[in-house]
């Protein structure tokens, strides 16, 4: 009973934290606008940067990173309180991964903003740093290599995300944790369905590395 209660509590908290959307908050606070009314309509870092440039981007990053890490930490702590003796580590991992899924769900479909949010990459990788920093570093490395090689941010985002449960398998996480992580990855991949369709048909725009590239970014992976 206590385990169910703690799991439900951590899931609710993580979802609500995920619903605190950095792009929407900063665009309203600094510019008096809703970022979703411009560009692609996505409430993520890429669309925010395309519309407003670097001004306020640090605030967006700070909010989305902090909410992800906090959600995973709280999820692990709460479920650990319900753990039988000797199962503290397993319960902590399960709580963190469950909170990660719920936080990404909140970021994607925020209750505070009409269920129209972002795609969960930045928030997700922030959660993963709490779960297993090695998986997060590998994901970031894959993202950087793919974007540098192909100039497709969406491709780097999708494949780096897919790498996380694979790394978790290699690092000995439980089947339960891996399945929940895979569900989170599936959610992110589904949120990128339009990007995937454009990639398949060779219509996805590439990022151009210039001093000012905000007008060149035409995908919204974050």
From TrEMBL:
Protein family (similarity comment): Belongs to the PlsY family.
One Gene Ontology CC term in the entry: plasma membrane
Presence of keyword Transmembrane helix: yes
Pfam family, one: G3P_acyltransf
UniProt protein name: Glycerol-3-phosphate acyltransferase
Its EC number(s): 2.3.1.275
Reactions catalysed, as given in the entry: an acyl phosphate + sn-glycerol 3-phosphate = a 1-acyl-sn-glycero-3-phosphate + phosphate
Top EC class for this record: transferase
Function: Catalyzes the transfer of an acyl group from acyl-phosphate (acyl-PO(4)) to glycerol-3-phosphate (G3P) to form lysophosphatidic acid (LPA). This enzyme utilizes acyl-phosphate as fatty acyl donor, but not acyl-CoA or acyl-ACP.
Keyword Cytoplasm in record: no
UniProt keyword annotations, A-Z: Acyltransferase, Cell membrane, Lipid biosynthesis, Lipid metabolism, Membrane, Phospholipid biosynthesis, Phospholipid metabolism, Transferase, Transmembrane, Transmembrane helix
PANTHER family attached to this UniProt entry: GLYCEROL-3-PHOSPHATE ACYLTRANSFERASE-RELATED, INNER MEMBRANE PROTEIN YGIH
GO biological process: phospholipid biosynthetic process
Pathway terms, separated by semicolons: Lipid metabolism; phospholipid metabolism
SMART domains: G3P_acyltransf
Molecular function in Gene Ontology: acyl-phosphate glycerol-3-phosphate acyltransferase activity
Membrane-traversing stretches: 6-31, 51-77, 97-115, 135-153, 173-190
Subunit-level organization: Probably interacts with PlsX.
Main location: membrane
InterPro entries per UniProt: G3P_acylTferase_PlsY (IPR003811)
Localization per Swiss-Prot or TrEMBL: Cell membrane
Bilayer disposition of the protein: Multi-pass membrane protein
